[in-house]
Amino acid sequence: CAHSSAGHRPSSARALPTSGYGSDTAPPANESSTSEIVAPRLPPRGSIRFRVDRGDSKFEIGAARQEWEFDAGRYRLRSVVETTGLAWLLRSVLIEMESIGRISETGLQPEAFGVLREGRRAREKALFDWEAMKLRVSDRPAQELDPGAQDLLSFNFQLGWLSNACRVSACAWL
Length: 174
Hints:
mainly beta
């Protein structure tokens, strides 16, 4: 549900830290055939808005927006959560997340995930190297990457994709 108030900040179009650790270039895309990819059930581009309430009191404290784009075997997911109204006056919070990657025959395959808090890079970031099967989280050393791994933002979209894939192919590959 859309909501606006005098204390509501407009979201910016800043680039989120999904392009690597200090690099301005996006991770390389893995090329693959898209002939066997099951199309997502969502439209190619969209946005869903949520009202954020505190507990069961129906007291609005913020708003959340989920956005997605699917195009040419690639995806981009974005989430923005921020305080609004009276809650914004008491404590201003703005958290932005972004996941980018490709769509393969097994669903979403994240390449990069990043978070901004109050417009500044946060520690939460990840780079997925599917060729080497390595995952780099924040500034930690690379670790083994499990097949089918997802980031915080792509996880729910992947669940939706799996239910669609199962409907089409009877989940023979699960």
